[in-house]
Amino acid sequence: MQSIWRVASTPSRECMTGQETQFESASPSRRDYRCDINCARTTFDVARRCARRPLPVDLRGFTLIEVLVTVLIISIIVTAALVVLSSARHTANQTACAARLRHVGIGVTSYAIDHYGSLPKQYRKSPPAFDSFWMRSPDGDLVNLGLITSYVGVPQAFYCVTQTAATSPRIAYNTAQNPWNVKNALSAFTPALNSSFTVRPGNGARWSVNNHNNKVIYTDFIGVRHFSDSARFPGGLQAPHALKGANRLVGDGSVQWVESEQVHKVHPILNVVATDKLVKDYYKLLDVLP
Hints:
Shape: elongated
Largest sheet: 4 strands, antiparallel
Number of helices: 6
Number of strands: 11
Order of helices and strands: EHEEHHHEEEEEEEEHH
Strand content: 15-25%
Radius of gyration: 37 Å
Strand order of the largest sheet: 6-7-10-11
Distance between the termini: 87 Å
């Protein structure tokens, strides 16, 4: 008959009629005793030792220290994962914005070829001095990047992906405050009022590719941390890329990244409106920073 093993918590009839069985435990310093209820003989001492047999190690639960250590390890892993994801998201946004600005650069170059080297007509309306987001003037005339919509053909190219309806609704793509109207499938657009890229200030007759081959002509840098104006910018403006840096389009068509901290060390980026001189100084700095 097959043996049935049982550990008695109190001396029982089965243990009294069973047989003491001894086996090696995980710990060599002690022996465990069990009772075989199908064997013929035992003693009360054997049953008592069966009753006192300690529980196997694998039946014990976790200690408090083990639980705390496990929770700590999990929290460290989650924190590290969040940091990696945040960094990856920032890198992805930076790359996407640079790609869009590069697309704009191709349109600017094509425009310049058709206009004897001249860059799109500049337009800005102060205050604030940094406000050159205009693609259509208040009179409805195409200005700045609004003049190259037919060369670019993709409305999203005029916007940094970090400028959204939640952060900067007046300079984000196709928001209620900055709508695009597509006339037909051949990319004949009525441009929105604003782009999210600013244009280099005041160059007049010298505003040409040849004179800005190694200078910044457009950028998503706005020269302010946060700005609010209920008339011009209802909903406010926020610096792109969480103020970590900005993309720059140079006259030669290249796009370069610059850390905001490098700019801030020379010309602090504040929450107040920059003067005309400060905006020009920002661009001169953007020309030379690596």
